[in-house]
Amino acid sequence: MRRFRFRARAGGLVFGSLLLFLVGTNVQSGWVFVLSALLLGVTAAGTILPFGGTRGLTVSRRAPGESFVGEQVRVDLTVTNTTRKPKLSISIHDPYVAQSNIFLPSLGAGASVTISTRRTAARRGAIDGGPVVVSSGAPFGVAEVRRTIPAAGRTVVFPRIVSMPGLPLRGDPSTGADDELPSGRGPGHEFHGIREYQRGDSLRHVHWPTTARHGSLVVREFERDRPARLTVVVDTAGDTPAVGDAETTLDRCCSVAASAALEAVRLGHGVSVVAARDARPVIVDGADPHRALTVLAELRAPGGMTLSRVLGQAPAAPTALVVFPTWRSNAATVLVPAVEELVAAGSRVVPVAIEVGASRAEPALSDQDVDELIAVLAAAGAEPVRIRPGRPVEQELAASFSLAGAAR
Amino acid sequence: MSAARLGAGSMPTLADRRRARRQRMNRPEESVRLRVIVLAATELSVLTVAVAGAVDAATAVVGLLLVPIGSWFAYRRRRHRNILLKVLLAAGLVAALAQFLQRARTATSVDDARVMLGGLFVWVQVLHSFDLPRRRDLAFSMAATVVLVAEAGSLSIDTGFGLLLLPYLALCAAWLYRSDRVRAEEDADPYEVRAGTVKPSATARRSRIRSLAGGLGAALLASMLVFMFTPHVPGARVLAPPFSVVNPVAVPGFSGGVSNPDAEGGDGSGPVRGVGYPGFGTGVDLRVRGHLSNQLVMRVRSPQPAFWRGQAYDTFNGTTWSASDHVVTEYGEGDDRSIDIGSPETSVPTRTLLQTFYVVRRQPNIVFAAANVRQVFFPASRVAVDEYGSIRAPIMLEPDTVYSVISDVPNPSGAMLRAAPAPQMGSLLSQYTQLPPDLPARDVELAHRITDPWPDTYDKVMAVQRWLQRNTRYNLDIPPDPPGVDAVDEFLFVRRQGFCEHIASAMAILLRAVGIPTRFAVGFDVGSHNLLTGYYDVHESDAHAWVEVAYPGIGWMEYDPTHAVPPAAQGFGASFLAGELLARLGRFVAWVVPGPLKTAGEAVGHALAVAGRSAARAWPVLLAVALAGIALLAWLGRRRGRVRSSAGAVAAFEAMSRTFERRGHPRKPEQTPAEYLRELLRTDPVARAARTDVEVVVAAFERDRFAASPPDPVDVEHATSSARRVAEAAGRR
Fold first, then answer.
1. What's the rounded Cα separation, in Å, for the pair A139 and A106?
2. CA distance A143 to chain B (A)
3. How far is A203 from chain B, CA to nearest CA, in Å?
4. pLDDT, tens only, B93-104
5. Which of B166, B183, B288, B712 is the most exposed place for a label (fewest CB within 10 A)?
């Protein structure tokens, strides 16, 4: 697709040309007419020439498959001039991962250049390709022609990971709790290694490339899935609108959820992540952090279910971390009964209330309502954490967890 | 909203963009190249106004010296606020403006003010050059150079101005390119080049210069087209047109007569003496022979062409035209320093023509102008006008004399002229229908034969004109007339060749023979229109004679039987320069092409015209064919202009083949790439050592040649690198 627009200087040149024409008409001076024609001629040539400036340019993109919010992502673009004429002043705008503007002063006929840019992933999400906009106003910058070129690439940007010292987990291996299960080979999803085929092994687990090399059957072995000790529930009922590169409330929720999940896995616990998507609960069970992170990266609002309904379908676990924005749908009257059920089932429930703040895309709870919610949740046996808007999540969590730890 | 959109970098808001723009505009300009371009353009513009005479030499020299100093100073101080400097510059500007206003009081015309404006603009440029911190200040400086160059252009009356304009245009193009590039570079994020290069190598620089030159050429071509189709319509009336004289030379004992140094002495039967036209003065002797020089006499600024009329004669004695009436009327200067003459009354529409004459070579004391002068702006307090509308000045037209004239040129249609009543003007009829007493009867008979079939004056005039154009030939190299013969009779019945004086005399006499009042006018032809300056360059050889015919109620109308007179009503097409330019090209081609070839060309042209007329009837088919042709050409051009993205793969394979060919393993014509690869791996140790690279190159080449889709650019890039590595490996061995 090609778009065209005049730049401000085109107006200046045309205005100057008309002015000179009027002057020339009044003083009957040929040279003033010549000057007027030159200004208009430059405008005309500067309008037509950029069409050739982007013709025959191809762009391919190479980017890593995964990244975390806040990380620098290296994105390589290969720009090729497939024509027999050099191109001047090529601007490339690539919004992949983060807005990036690249300027190539010139690109020779048939030449190719691969340029590498570092971009900071500002928001979580799965980025599937997306076009690159190539523009040129060469040689006079009078007008600009933009061409949109599709470019491949897929990068999943995982939520921001914050440190979570003191994450309250029941049966923490470090505490020597009796319900700890040692890790080892067994039915699961994590790849452990390969070994010779033994009778009874499923043919689905045969590793054919190695089998072909060895000449005998070789099968894959998997890590035994650990039972989930932590269930992380994320409320996807709503989200605040994205402004610039700032994280939305749901981004903050996912950040807390992902950080907790990774911390739990690091401590040797299995994790389940539960959230609503398309009016159905999505449950990622087991100790596969990659899958959990991918789901959290791709969560969108509205999920189509209230948090209380999602909690009702969450798998039981010793600890339940419930991350939710302070929407009205999470008022004490609605949320507390569901939490009470979890507490009654023997789970340690840690509700993390992410305050929505000034933005009011969805009806949010007032400060008094949030105070009341926190108080009622605490009274119900939960260990609520309140994260105020604009405050760093890690600081708020660390403060709450240390307080909770001291209380225990 | 899709995940891709949400996950992608979000677009900056309008406020962000505005903030960024504001910051960018207020940022000091760091590009030295851009500053150098602006400096060069400024220097050139000052030089241009100096050459055009818009500023005195001292101002120009000071300007040329101060502008570089100011630019250097502005660059050094670009990051400072320079409050004191700004105050000083403002004071300087006020002083320059005050000086301009003081001088403007003495201006007698708009032209004078233009010259003074030049000085003011130069000082503005000089002062502004000291304060150019930001890019927009540089842009303002460039805009000011356009004003200066336009000022110079408006005062330039020769083509030499183009020598300065071309480099100025190149500098403007360079500024447009560089400023756009600097802006884009500023907006861009840093990056690292992994493969290929964006650094300006010598080849890349040459290629870039070629591209820029191409762009400049395209701009010139577009400008030429724009210029050709620029309507040259008459502008608003300038109420104070210019007039001046540098060294006035008074005509001794001026009493309304003509003083012509080139017509003095001799009996008129010899060749032309000197270079001037001897016909201005007391009469025109048709026996005089010779060529006039091609020296420039004057430049005329006029919205449309006309004859620059000098005098008219009413009496012909067989060899010489003269004036029977020597009475003159004097007109004095009015309050507005103009001399009001009052044009003759007419019942037909007139076109007001403001002409300004810039005298280059000394001329008689005749105020040349288009017919029917109404008002004269002349550097003298009075002028004399004879009964034939000829204006005489009390001073000679010395070089550098400038004067302006407003004429009301009658602009009747053919129908109006046809409707004019037959001449019944009493004494006028006898004065302007006078014939030489010895005029042979065959001249009168010829006049009747030509005109009798036509009922009215207009058609009779046109008939005579047509007859002369068909039956006589223009020739400056004609022999002297035999003694005692009537010059017109000799021309019409014996020689049938002559120049403007003979042709115009013949027309006047033939018309008089049938009772149509005529007079013989002399002056200058319109001259050559300089397309670039817009002025008519009138040369000595443009001295001309034509006929004036009286139409009752309308007035005297000019006819030029020597060549086609510019039509009174020119039509819309005449507003553009394209016709004139093409006509000139045509005349040039006609001049250089031999006669037989021209005849053949005309025949072919005629045949083509006939074919074209026939084809025009089937225009839908033609249109369809033309569109199909354009589409085909566009497709072919696109195909030709595009190299497959895999050109690099082919190049890599060819480079690798050359490497092994040098090592004694050329690819046989019948070998497929895969066979060649196998042979290389079998026979060449370098190929074996660089097996992976060789395979990569061959795979990319095969994919390019045989696969449905071309290889990925990254693969092409790898193939190119591999070919290079193979060459390096071969070089090491």
1. 11
2. 11
3. 35
4. 999 999 888 887
5. B166
